[in-house]
Amino acid sequence: MTKIGFDNDKYIELQSKKILDRISHFGGKLYLEFGGKLFDDYHASRVLPGFKPDSKVKMLMQLKDQAEIVIAINADDIEKSKRRGDLGITYDLDVLRLIDAFREIGLYVGSVVITHYRAQYTADQFKKRLLNLGIKVYLHYPIPDYPSNISLIVSDDGFGKNEYIETTRSLIVVTAPGPGSGKMAVCLSQLYHDNKRGIQAGYAKFETFPIWNIPLKHPVNVAYEAATTDLADVNMIDPFHLEAYGITAVNYNRDIEIFPVLNAIFEKIEGKSPYKSPTDMGVNMAGYCIIDDEVVSEAAKQEVIRRYYSTYCAQRQGLAEKSEVYRLELLMKQLGVSSKDRPVVGAALERAEATGGPAVALQLNDGRIVTGKTSSLLGASAALLLNSLKELGGIHHDIHLISPIVIEPIQVLKIKHMGNRNPRLHTDEILIALSICAATNPTAALAMEQLPKLRGCEAHSTVILSKVDENIFHKLGINITCEPQYQSKKLYHK
To answer: Strand, helix or coil at 359?
Structure first.
């Protein structure tokens, strides 16, 4: 059983109240820049055991009558077909996915704003597509010398050129498919236009990490640095907060660096700034909901190790820089951890050495470790899943959950008719075969019943997995890491 270190119910309650207080502070209208993931925040759930991946959405549901969603997307990202790393879909498609997801739970999506618009053809096509779907679209333009040229930014030739986003609710949640979408600029532009119209409104920022009221080098905050090595984010003590209040607070470098400029923009728009520090701008209450520091610290250390492996593999695939790997090694040293502190790593390597082929190890939630090896019928990942389900169901290892008579025709199909060279079954194929057998085989049915128990388990592979196997592990909720090496010497890998 996974230990709980975070009170999720308390978080939803405190967070909702904090946002309502901030709305009231600004006279009834708040532009809330929503950083990080609204849906499926698995990073937070991994480093704060007890935090539910949909916590932020549930919090917003408490405010659904007041909330309106505005989604920002950078026109340059549309043009470059920028993709979300976790979902593998382009940012423009993710906008459609987000709209569907919000609508499904009853949250009102007011509009989409295309930022950095310079009449890009792809942006025009996306705008046309949204309009045809009945979605309001607004255009915001690049401003020369943004954000330093304040006199230009806060003028009719700066924010004034942007289309004013018509809103109807008191809480305007500005979110985006990913970083660099221009969420903050959208909020500031709206403040400028509201001010010209005599409408009272304010700005706040909602970021879960870094957590401002826990120590700078706390493992949870270090895990945030590990998660953002590609952005080169660094956690820092907020000097403005320390000077204003004599209180040590943690923020990250980009917010601290931009604050003097942001402060000046506030003063230019409204005559004075509502904030004395970048920490003041935040409304995050996560730090007040940690109930077991030891549990969240250990979970965060494990996340740093996982990030190290995922980045190392990405670097091996040409998707990350070597400097990112070095940075993660440094963060691990800071926390006093290494790959040896991830039990499944040693278990997988030992099994691979003993068998002379790829192997995968999985640690069940009760601490037991199960391994899987490559055979003539199954890949190591597929074998691991079957072995794990047997272990969870108390099924003897020698019992076949899937008869070779079932597996062999699938192999023939793969090789003879589908053009595959590898006859071994992948994880998706083995699960489909198992589910078919479960219809007539009670033992297979018992194994299928164990699948939910795999959620939250840790696993490690001695080779980089195929996308198919990697996706199956993620769908099952298994935290998988891999050694940064391929099974074969081929240049092309699926």
So the answer is: strand
Beta-carbon contacts of 321 under 8 Å, excluding residues fewer than 6 positions away, are: 315
> What do you get for the CA distance between the two ends of the chain, in Å?
35
| R_g (Cα) of the chain, nearest Å | 25
Domain locations in the chain as residue ranges: 8-289, 344-482
Mean pLDDT of the chain: 93
Q: Are 33 and 174 in contact (CB under 8 A)?
A: yes
What phi, psi does 397 have (nearest 5°)? Answer: -60, -30
- Residues 383/357, Cβ–Cβ less than 8 Å: no
- How many helices and strands in the chain, by DSSP H and E? 20, 12
Digit-coded pLDDT (tens) for 203-214:
999 999 999 999
pLDDT at 492: 43
For residue 61, the SS3 value is helix
pTM of this structure: 0.90
Choosing among 2.60.120.1680, 3.10.630.10, 1.10.10.10, 2.10.25.10, the CATH entry for 8-289 is: 3.10.630.10
Side by side, which strands form the sheet with 202-206?
137-139, 108-115, 67-74, 171-175, 30-34, 202-206
CATH class of the domain comprising 344-482: alpha beta
| 360, β-bridge pairs | 372, 461
Q: CB count, 10 Å around CB of 166?
A: 9
The tokens 């980089």 sit on which residue?
464
Extract the runs of DSSP E, i.e. beta strands, from 85-201: 108-115, 137-139, 171-175
Cα gap 298→24, rounded to integer Å: 38
pLDDT in the model for residue 208 = 92
Q: Is 392 helix (H, G, I), strand (E, B) or coil?
A: helix
Model confidence at 370: pLDDT above 70: yes
